[in-house]
Structure formats: structure tokens, C-alpha cells
UniProtKB/TrEMBL annotation:
InterPro entries: Aldolase_TIM, RibuloseP-bd_barrel, Trp_synthase_alpha_AS, Trp_synthase_suA. The gene is trpA. This is Tryptophan synthase alpha chain. Pathway: Amino-acid biosynthesis; L-tryptophan biosynthesis; L-tryptophan from chorismate: step 5/5. Signal peptide: none annotated. SUPFAM superfamilies: Ribulose-phoshate binding barrel (SSF51366).
């Protein structure tokens, strides 16, 4: 049983909080502190963004975070190293790497999957690697005990949902809005309708992200989803609190966890 599956089982129907940060923002040492602070604040799963030079699915907040991380020279191997450091103290909180396919492809799927598993990674989400082309990476991840996590959009049809269900494990990430990360105007009723359709095909937990900006929004999403995913709001909190990033992010995680 994977760490992600174990975490959802332990929650026993309660809703999970999944928090996102960009590795290397504002620096790699603070990233490690942030991970521990988020876990202490109540994050059930941590998504760790792999910085990339062309983050096309991300809004300005996460784009700036990626730029800062790349300016610090953070690489995919550096991201794996910080996960390995995190595992020296935290053996239970799942870590999902989220990013774009290019750095993974450059390293090589087999080498990446082995290195990620050795570091203590639990799942991988590559936002620009759709189900139609995902099988080569999926095979390597599965061989190393890693979950492959897929995005589902408001425009995803049922045939594609069924295809995703054949490869997805851990959880599925439902993108609640059309557009980039950090978008606004979340319609919870529309999300609930889409999740009802998605659950006809997907038996694993469904997390909902994009557009969740505060505890009230997290609570509304928790009423219809298995997990609430918050990224841009946390990255914004990091950006706004230089020198006390971990403290501020941990406090926000505690507020969000209480809401879900």
C-alpha cells in the first residue's frame, strides 16, 4: 500500500488537505523548512513543484516562484535531494512531485523513477503529459512503486475519464476552473456536478484545486471533494513573508486544515 493510499485510509472519510509549494522558492533550505512546517500545520500530502522555465499551466504567482527557484540554480536532482532530506525526519507525509515533462524526459524515465523512489517521493504529476502519451513514464513509475497522478479538466469527456482511470493511482487532481493556477471565481456547484460524473469512472480519491483562496473556499470544496488542493495562495503567503516563510505557510495550512 502506498503512502498516499495509507494517508487517505487513515483519514477514514475525512477530507485531505494537499498543499503545493515550488521547490527552491525562496531557496532550497527554506523549502525543507516549509515542508516540515506544512506537515506540522496539518497538510496531509505535500505537492512539490519542479521549477521550469516555461510553466504554461501556472499563473503569475507560481511563475514568479519558478523564476526565483531557477535563479537559485535549482534542478530536478536538487528537488529529489530536498525530498530525501525531508524523509530523514518525516516518514509518513506523502510527497508528490508536480511539474512539466521536459526535466523528467531529460533525466530519463527509468533513472528518474528509480531516483524519485530512492528519495522518498510517492507520486508524480506531469501536467503536460496527457493520458494518451503517459504510458512510458507510467510503466517506470509503477515499477518503482510510485503513483501516477493525472489532471482532469472541466472539459474532460467521459471517454477520457475512463482512459485515465486505467492508469491513475493515488488520487486524481480535478482542475476546478478553466485557465491557469490562481484563477478566481470558483463555482462549487459546477464542481459538484462534474465530480458526480467523474466518480462514475474514478474509484480513487479526487482532489480539487485551482481557485481556492481562503479557508471558506476550502470548506466549500471539502463538502464535495475527497481532498482540497491549495497552491497559489500558499506560494503568495511565502512571497509576502520574507524571513518567516515557514511560519507563515504553516499557520495558513493550519487554518485550511481546520476548514476542511
Amino acid at each position: 500500500m502506498s503512502r498516499i493510499e495509507t494517508t487517505f485510509g487513515r483519514l477514514n472519510g475525512q477530507k485531505a488537505l494537499i498543499t503545493y509549494i515550488t521547490a527552491g522558492d525562496p531557496d532550497i533550505g527554506t523549502t525543507l523548512e516549509l515542508m516540515h512546517s506544512l506537515a506540522a500545520g496539518g497538510a496531509d500530502i505535500i505537492e512539490l513543484g519542479i521549477p521550469f522555465s516555461d510553466p504554461m499551466a501556472d499563473g503569475p504567482v507560481i511563475q514568479r516562484a519558478a523564476e526565483r527557484a531557477l535563479a537559485n540554480g535549482v534542478s530536478l536532482r536538487g528537488v529529489l535531494d530536498v525530498v530525501a532530506q525531508f524523509r530523514r525526519r518525516n516518514h509518513d507525509t506523502p510527497v508528490v512531485l508536480m511539474g512539466y515533462l521536459n526535466p523528467v524526459h531529460k533525466m530519463g524515465y527509468a533513472e528518474f523513477a528509480r531516483a524519485a523512489a530512492a528519495a522518498g517521493v510517492d507520486g508524480v504529476l506531469t501536467v503536460d503529459n496527457p493520458v494518451e502519451t503517459a504510458e512510458p513514464l507510467y510503466r517506470e513509475l509503477k515499477a518503482n512503486g510510485l503513483d501516477t497522478i493525472f489532471l482532469v479538466a472541466p472539459t474532460t469527456d467521459e471517454a477520457r475519464m475512463a482512459a485515465i482511470s486505467q492508469l491513475a493511482s493515488g488520487f486524481v487532481y480535478y482542475v476546478s476552473l478553466k485557465g491557469v493556477t490562481g484563477s478566481a471565481q470558483l463555482d462549487t456547484d459546477a464542481v459538484a456536478e462534474k465530480l458526480a460524473v467523474l466518480r462514475r469512472h474514478i474509484s480513487i480519491p479526487i482532489g480539487v484545486g485551482f481557485g481556492i483562496a481562503d479557508a471558506a473556499g476550502a470548506a466549500r470544496v471539502a463538502a464535495v471533494a475527497d481532498a482540497v488542493i491549495v497552491g497559489s495562495r500558499i506560494v503568495k503567503e511565502i512571497e509576502a513573508n520574507p524571513g518567516r516563510e515557514a511560519e507563515a505557510a504553516g499557520a495558513l495550512a493550519a487554518q485550511l486544515k481546520a476548514a476542511v
